[in-house]
Design goal:
With about 140 residues, the protein is an alpha/beta fold. The protein contains five helices and five strands. The chain has a single domain (about 1-140), classed as 3-Layer(aba) Sandwich (Rossmann fold), CATH 3.40.50.
C-alpha cells in the first residue's frame, strides 16, 4: 500500500486559497488545484492518505475524505512526544502492509531525520504546487509527463 501522510494547513488550505474562498462557490477553503492534483495522483499511483494534520483533532478523517474526495483511510495518533515524525512512525509500525510512503507538510521541524528524504515541503503561502506534484511521482518511483 502506498501512503501519503497529509497535512492540511499549508498544503491544501493556504494564504492563497483563502483569497480565492467564496462561500457562494465552494463551502470550504481548500485550494481546488492542489486537491485536484492529489486526486489525479491518487488515481494514477494508487495512493491512500493518512491525516497527519492538526485538523485530525477537529475533523474525523472520513469527514475530510468526503470534503476533499481524497481516499483518507486513517489519522495518525497523538504521541507522548507530540512530534509529528513520531506519530507517523507509530502509524507505520502499526501498519506493516505499507510498501512506500511520502509526507506532505509545510512544517518539517518535528519530523524524524530519516523521514526527511520522503518529505515534500510546501509553504503556507502557496501550498501544494505543480512542482510538488511532480516530486510526489518521483518519490514513488514514477514519472508524470
Amino acid at each position: 500500500m502506498r501512503v501519503v501522510f497529509l497535512d492540511i494547513d499549508g498544503v491544501l488550505v493556504t494564504r492563497r486559497s483563502l483569497f480565492g474562498h467564496d462561500e457562494r462557490i465552494h463551502r470550504y477553503e481548500f485550494d481546488v488545484c492542489a486537491v485536484n492534483m492529489l486526486l489525479t495522483a491518487q488515481t494514477e499511483l494508487g495512493l491512500c492518505f493518512v491525516l497527519s494534520s492538526s485538523w485530525r483533532k477537529i475533523y474525523c478523517h472520513k469527514t475530510l475524505s468526503v470534503m476533499t474526495g481524497l481516499n483518507i483511510i486513517d489519522s495518525t495518533g497523538i504521541s507522548s512526544t507530540n512530534r509529528r515524525g513520531d506519530e507517523i512512525q507509530d502509524w507505520l509500525n502499526s501498519n506493516p502492509n505499507v510498501s512506500d510512503y511520502v509526507i506532505i507538510d509545510d512544517e518539517v521541524s518535528d519530523l524524524n531525520d530519516n523521514q526527511l528524504n520522503r518529505t515534500i515541503k510546501t509553504e503556507y503561502a502557496d501550498g501544494f504546487l505543480f512542482g510538488h506534484f511532480l516530486k510526489l511521482y518521483e518519490l514513488f518511483g514514477e514519472k508524470n509527463e
